[in-house]
Fold DUF1479 domain protein.
Amino acid sequence: MPGTLLSWPDWPEFTAAKGEAGDDLVEFKKTIVDKYGEDALVKSWLRVCRELEAVTDEIAERASSMIPEVQFEQFFSLPAEQKKALKEVGCFVVRDVFSKEQANDWFDQLKQYVAANRASITGWPAETPFILNLYYSPTQMAARSHPNQLKLSEELNSWWHDDSGTTSPKPLSYADGVRIRPPGVAFKGLGPHIDAGSLSRWADPVYQSVYSAVFSGNPELLDNYDLTVRKMANQAMFPGSAHSRVFRSFQGWTALTSAGLGEGSLMLYPNVKWAMAYLLLRPFFQPPESEEEIMDATKWKFDATSPWFPGTFRGDSQLLSPSSHPHLRLRECMVGIPKMSPGDTVWWHADMCHAVEVEHNGDHEASVAYIAATPRTEENKRYIKGQLEDFLQGIPPEDFRKGPSEKTFKLFTGESGILGGEAGRKAMGFDLIA
């Protein structure tokens, strides 16, 4: 199908033999079993695997067409049913957030900034860095604070609800990196994964309780947009550069150039609810010995005595593979996003599995700015306040301490690079240090 990989890359497969060890891992499982009970976990397992049969059939058939596309101007007046459908899929492309001319100008400015400061810029992968440790280039400052970006971020934040009333959808500007990926360079570093923590989803009592519906035998009741408890979850419970301290309601790419399938683009698993429920339950079940019975959930055995959490490593994002998470049918269901044009954006839910294509077979650089929708939770405000104080002193953001001090860079614009007037300054956190 258009939008799926012709051949699966040699991304790592995760097995118990390669998993982390530790008595605490068994204890994390035991705590959940003691709280919810084996019967509830088995009930959820069977229900989730049954639901995934229909979910994966649809994704495999529709491929990239599963990912909705909406024009920016239409996004704020969506019919209720269309918004509900977008929330259920959990990912979508928003077209023409910025004009192509604006995006082209930003890309030119970014290239100039990089060229002027090349000797001081590092990135990933080390041998051919194209995910750059830059956070305050004029391009990033402008794209994050542009009124259209702020308006879109606020709308996305508003899709989440906090019954305590202590969270505002008013956006905060989380400083993240930027990518300029050249063609012809293979990159295997971002296989299927989920951000916002890994082991902490089971180990942190607060984070675990976010998914209580899954553990208690009622996965259909899981509300993936409830921030009431989640805003207090410790997604950075275990130290690691992959774990952001900030809650991002939706992660996002803002396209500075065009990029399509086969050009180092983004791949998504277009389902949030059932994929996350499966991920959470998978560590409690052992597969049958017969390969022919792997997809039969009734043949799997409940086992909470193994320390293995498939694809879970304390310091890394949550990783997934076809062999460790077979019912997700990743080979068929990781689909490429629709072709992006300069000025388009793509968004995916905080719990969504995503990856980046290994190959870039296009004829030009593929560039995106990593810009997420970030609501005003108490922890997010704490982080953004510190981020701003660091910015004013020329210190890289807390999540990216290895970055350079851009304050001394040529073409650095500082505060003057903020767009959006007072709203742009508030998003940067200036009201938090007043």
Notes: The longest strand covers residues 250-255. The CA atoms of residues 56 and 333 lie 7 Å apart. The chain has one domain: 16-432. The first helix runs from residue 23 to 36.
